Amino acid sequence: MEQGTAQAVTDNRAKNRFELAVGNQTVFADYRRNGQTMVISYVEAPPSLRGTGAAGRLMEGVMDAARSEGLKIVPLCSYAALWMRRNRRHDDLLA
Questions:
Q1: Residue 3 domain-assigned (yes or no)
Q2: What's the domain count of the chain?
Q3: How far are the Cα atoms of 15, 27, 31, 88 from residue 19, in angstroms, in the given order?
Q4: Is residue 4 part of a domain?
Q5: What is the pLDDT of residue 60?
Q6: Where in the sequence is the domain holding 16, given as residue range(s)?
Q7: Membrane-spanning residues where (predicted)?
Q8: For residue range 34-90, what is the model confidence (pLDDT) as tens digits?
C-alpha cells in the first residue's frame, strides 16, 4: 500500500529525536536541547532510504520545529552540518 508523500516529522521527546516514518522504516535525528539551542548529534537513515531524500525531508521538519520554537541549531552531525551548508535559507537558525 502506497502512502502519501507528506509524512509528518514528529518530535519524539521521550527519545530526544525527530522522526520521519517512511513506510515501515524511520529516519531520525538525535538532539539535545540546551537553553535556546538544539544540538543535532546524529542523523540516521536506514540503508534502503539513503539517497531518497528522506533525511533531507527530516531536516526540513527539524528546521521548521526549531524556527517555531525560536531555537538555534548546532549541527554536530556531519550530515546535518553539510545539509545546512547546502540549504542556506536556514542560515538564520545556526547558533
A1: no
A2: 1
A3: 10, 6, 11, 23
A4: no
A5: 97
A6: 9-93
A7: none
A8: 999 999 999 999 999 999 999 999 999 999 999 999 999 999 999 999 999 999 999
The CATH number linked to 51 is 3.40.630.30
**Helix axes of 78-86 and 54-69: crossing angle, nearest 10 degrees:** 80
Here the cell at position 10 is 514528529
Q: Cα angle vertex 89, ends 88, 90, to 5°?
A: 85
Place of cell 524511520: 26
pLDDT value for 67: 97
Distance, in Å, from the CA atom of 67 to the CA atom of 60, rounded to the nearest integer, reads 11
* Any domain includes 37: yes
Residues of the chain by 3-state class (helix, strand, coil), percent to 5: 35, 35, 30
User: Is the whole-model pTM more than 0.85?
Assistant: yes
